[in-house]
Write a structure and sequence with these properties.
The complex is a heterodimer of chains A (about 200) and B (about 55).
Chain A: H1 3-16, H2 27-32, H3 37-66, H4 75-97, H5 99-105, H6 109-112, H7 116-128, H8 136-169, H9 180-195
Helix pairs in contact in A: 1-8, 3-4, 3-7, 3-8, 4-7, 8-9
Chain B: H1 2-27, H2 35-44
Chain lengths: ~200, ~55
Amino acid sequence: MSFTVFATAIISAMLINNVILMQFLGICPFLGVSKKSSSAIGMSAAVLFVMVIASAVTYTIYDLVLFPFDIPYISTIAFILVIASLVQFVEMVIKKFSKPLYKSLGIYLPLITTNCAILGVSEGNITGIWTETTPYWEGLFTAVSVSIGTGLGFGLIIFAFSSIREKLDGSNVPAAWKGVPISLVVAGIMSLAFLGLAGII
Amino acid sequence: MDNILVPVLVIGSLVFMYILSYMLNKKTPIPEECLEAVDRTKCESCHSFTCTYKGEE
């Protein structure tokens, strides 16, 4: 557990293996909630929040329940149920105790239940970080660091994309390219740009 | 028998957890100051082609 591990995990997950542009996960909110910058910020904050908690919980469940009982093959269905329950629970707690937070994040929370980026990070933590010999706390620290980096990477891309889309709305785009087509072209160019960062770490 | 029982128990308990959290969340009232934002979001995301309102005045 060191700052180097934390920083490497953050930079790697945020820029080099970006969840949207390199792994193509979470495309639905990337295209659906990126029309306005304000919605993009709300969505990315909610994703970051749930992703970090979900990673910690799913890693713990795998390490303490699924592996010891020799049932790792049910990890996908178990993680889906854990994430769905977690979203409901987090929404309830925020609703009850923090009205300002609910106002900014609450409306995006139900959408996160079906966000494959959360499940992808949880599964990735098991395949990429978890091993039989890795101490629990060390693995958990790395998993949480990766999830923070992934959440920040998701936020960075969705915010940049929403800013570009806002700019495009006021631009003179040919009729055939207006709306989704030009947005997909922009997404492709962004993905190519991020490909240039591959292999840095 | 144990090979089947353990995964069934784990999945069953997770399903129970989900149902419990869903019921508790449904029972918790939405704060009054957030009702407008929630209604607006639901309205904007329904994508009904027959509706002409579209969340606008």
